[in-house]
Amino acid sequence: MGNWFIDWNDPRDWLRAGAYAAASTTMVVVPTEWVPTIHGQALVGAAIWAVALVGIVTWPRRGRIAVAWWVFVPWFLMLAAAVTHRYPFAVPRMMSYWAPALALALAGGIVRIFRAFSLVFLQKSAPGTLAALLMMLAPAVFMIQVPLSHRYWVLHDFPSLLNTLAMRRAPNDLVVVTPGAVPCVRYYAGQRSQAFHFAPVENGTLLAPGFNYDDFLDTTIRRAGQRCWVLTTDDHRDPSHAALVRTCQVHGYDLSVIEADEPSRYGSAQLLLATKQ
């Protein structure tokens, strides 16, 4: 959590805070998978704020001050909390406080910009207003596809992996689920997961304090027989992933990827098969 706090006299903390702000701002408009680099997020974030500022500046005078307060005050409060080490800065979960205001200012800016272009090129403002409304409705097409494609989780291809596992798994094959995959597998597999060996987790995918994952994997893999299946992610920030590879090597298993999700900065779903050499 320390990296999310800000020491006021440390330039690195301010640069890091700017990167977090750019990433969180980008999430309001586009999935971060579309803009995976911090340089791209900085450009997109700057563009978003530029359009939002246009919306604030051109907002009707009667409500302009109120909109400006609504947009900026949450950021100043987050900044004060981070500098005093009370709460992390610009974490995505804080979007519920500032994203609605930013979206409103952004909408005002988009309408104003489109109307201005429409007046310059068509001498009419109505086509610009209509184009702005259509542009702002476009994300709804993507959002509708999220539940239709079972993309409730970041690691969203577990339904396909579980179907593959059901078709190829022999009755006595052991199935291991690593921490990063536990909530997704429990959600999608339902009663089918009762025979799976889940690594203990807390609060989603957090490693259980004090639990020895090396012993868990060693004991589980030792009983696997000629082969076992692993439902995991390719998120290498998860230390249990490296422990899994190491344990399989120690006990003489070859790990192969049977099916994998599309790449994601948060890790993608993977179905692995460990086969005895």
Keywords:
two-stranded antiparallel ribbon; 5-stranded mixed beta sheet; single chain; alpha/beta; 2 domains; 9 helices; 277 residues
Number of helices: 9
Strand content: 5-15%
As for the number of domains, it is: 2
**Backbone structural class:** alpha/beta
Query: Topology as H/E string?
Result: HHHHHHEHEEEHEHEE
Overall pLDDT level: 83
Strands of the widest sheet, in order across it, are 2-1-5-7-6
Number of strands: 7
Biggest sheet overview: 5 strands, mixed
**Helical residues, percent:** 55-70%
Shape type? elongated
Work out the oligomeric state of the chains in this entry.
single chain
- Computed over alpha carbons, the radius of gyration is 24 Å
CA-CA gap between termini: 42 Å
Task: Please describe what this structure looks like.
- There is one protein chain.
- The chain is of the alpha/beta class and 277 residues long.
- It folds into two domains: 147 residues, no CATH class; 119 residues.
- The protein is 56% helix and 12% strand.
- The protein contains nine helices and seven strands.
- The strands form two sheets. Strands 2-1-5-7-6 form a five-stranded mixed β-sheet, sandwiched between helices. A two-stranded antiparallel ribbon has the order 3-4.
- β3 and β4 form a beta hairpin.
- α1 crosses α2, α2 crosses α4 and α3 crosses α4.
- The radius of gyration is 24 Å and the shape is elongated.
- The protein starts with 10 loop residues before the first helix and ends with a strand.
- The mean pLDDT is 83.
Give a quick rundown of the structure:
By secondary structure, this protein is α/β, with parallel strands linked by helices. 56% of the residues lie in helices and 12% in strands. It has nine helices and seven strands, in the order H-H-H-H-H-H-E-H-E-E-E-H-E-H-E-E.
